[in-house]
Amino acid sequence: MSATSPPPAVPPPCGTVQRWCFDLIATRDLGAKLAPPPLPDLADDASWEQDAPVRRIAAPGRPDALRVTARSPKTPSRGSLVRAEVRARLFHTFAHHELQAAELFCWGVLAFPDAPRELHRGLVRLALEELEHLALYRAHMGELGLAYGDLAVRDWFWQRVPSATDAIGFVAFVGLGLEGANLEHSARFAEWFRGAGDAAGAAVLERVERDEVGHVAFARRWFEQLTGAPLDFDAWADRLPRPLTPMLLRGLPLNVEARRRAGLDDAFLARLAGTGGVEAASAASNWAANADPNPDRLTGGRGASRPVGAEKVALPETVTEESTDSAESDDAARDSARDGDLRRESFRSDSARQDTAGSPTVDAVTARKGAARSSPARFDTTPHAPIAWVLNFDAEEELAAPRRYAPTDRLLAIGERQTERVLADGARGIGFVLPGDVIVDERTPPGGARGLVGRAWCPTPRALALLERAGATLAGPAPSLDVLRRVNARPFTADLRAHLEGAPFEKRIAGDLDEALALVTRPAPLGWLVRRTFGAAGRGRLRLGPGPPTEHERRWLIASARRGPLVIEPWVDVLEEITVSGTVGERGEIVVAAPCFQATTSRGAWTGTERAGAGDLVRRDDDLLLSACEETGRALFAAGFTGPFGIDAFRYRSEPGAPARLNALSEINARLTMDRGVAFAREGAERPRPSPWKPTR
């Protein structure tokens, strides 16, 4: 169904509150949306439809005056707000957010008819307040020379909220999530507008912020009432519709004072800010003690826990002796991490640093492929403490069906070949598995690795069971199966990528077969790439040519859609593949290694890795990759993941003759990756350790 089609549901009886909600969503009359008819008496039981059925409306009616687009406009810089047209465009975006919020509060009334009547009444009142906010935004942007509907709009909220399966998930996402994030956004933009000399616009945003405090408080009360327990961060995060995470439902720095007024306690705010880790109570007390009373700024003192992203520290352009010494000492690394010292090797040449205009030309990309690389960093292969490894390269297959998973002969054969490559790299001193380490699999006898530290390619239940049977001791706590499934699912990457700066094309998430078919029949110069929810090494993906799917492609889509959401993106001509490895620590610190170039087969299976040398990346690409890796680390930590991870990126052409561009985030692998040994290699190190290393908060 298109976004402009009326929802295919039987309308409620006329004169009821439910009919008022239905009409607000369904109407294609812009005037009726902006100024709906009088609302029936909410306190009168006769105003409510009795024994109402579930009505889960898939999309709102959209007037012809509202042109819906698939991409959001880029957020302008603070300095650009001195121009009235830029402020007007921002208010146009905010106005459409308010319309969606009003519609979706009405959607909650219709979708969850068995919820308490008082919750329904409250949702309708919130919808009316959202329409008031919409009117305020429209009035001010009219003074700035823009009318609602002059620009395209995006129905992002509508793409996500209907995935809520019950009233608890609804208030968790809309009330505590979207409305909560608006506490940060409205406060930040109010400051920006006032700084640009627009006091009237700032006053509108401050009014919205005050009202949103009540909306968040309403959601908190109902979340607690529906769950029967005080609001808890983990309980809230678990109720968010997948693949959404708390990281996507907040602004930084947090608007601490406003969130406290909404009834959110410091333990919850500490976790939301990113300082919770595995010691939430301790982190909460540290965070609260060091929180700045100014709600527009949130930083910790020297040595204090600091929220993710709350402070920006400039990166040095080159590796210094001081940073090298820090990387070689665990104690120094921990001290430096506490002090917020950010270090990372520069892999740009001096000439490349001057290039801030964008990506290199196609000729530069082609020439680089034939250029000599820097010699690979190597590990010291002298005796070291052996590690017991489970190299479960089929981890994504297990995550797709964990309860009934058993590796096939084909997957076992693929795993054997990949293990041989890893061992060969280790023998050459450029791998993460070194001579003397022990490989654990089904053939390992019980107790065969007793006394050794155990690690896994991905700590799935099967891998952990093999290590336990072999008697190995885990190197540290492993993420839960639910967390591993969430962060390794391809929709997790697609959702995070939509918020990254410079994302060159959109990955779309198709929740069912009809949505997938609608997407892949759109025009695309080179066709489409469709990925299943889980997959790796070229598995679980299919390229579709331009035009309607063939019978074979349709059968594949049908079978794949049964396994979960599909991720669909345009097929492009990949010129060069790049990977970046990192680690998320137990307190949220993020270590990022230098990028590597990787070679793969035509189907996407890994065949080799080389570390990027000086001058191989221009400054803009370096910055985009670093930003993508850091944002990935933050998102993983917010989702409950700690441990090694990697991101895949690539340089590409969208069609023949088009300029080369960088896609800085193609895939997230929340596990070890093949490039890790090369990326983290240090001369003379007993074990792969970060060089360069970059702790962030």
Automatic annotation (TrEMBL):
Biased composition (Basic and acidic residues): 331-353
Composition bias type Acidic residues, residue spans: 319-330
Span list, region Disordered: 282-381
Highest taxon in the source lineage: Bacteria
Cited Pfam families: DUF455
InterPro entries: DUF455, Ferritin-like_SF
Biased composition (Low complexity): 282-291
CDD domains recorded: Ferritin_like
Protein name: DUF455 family protein
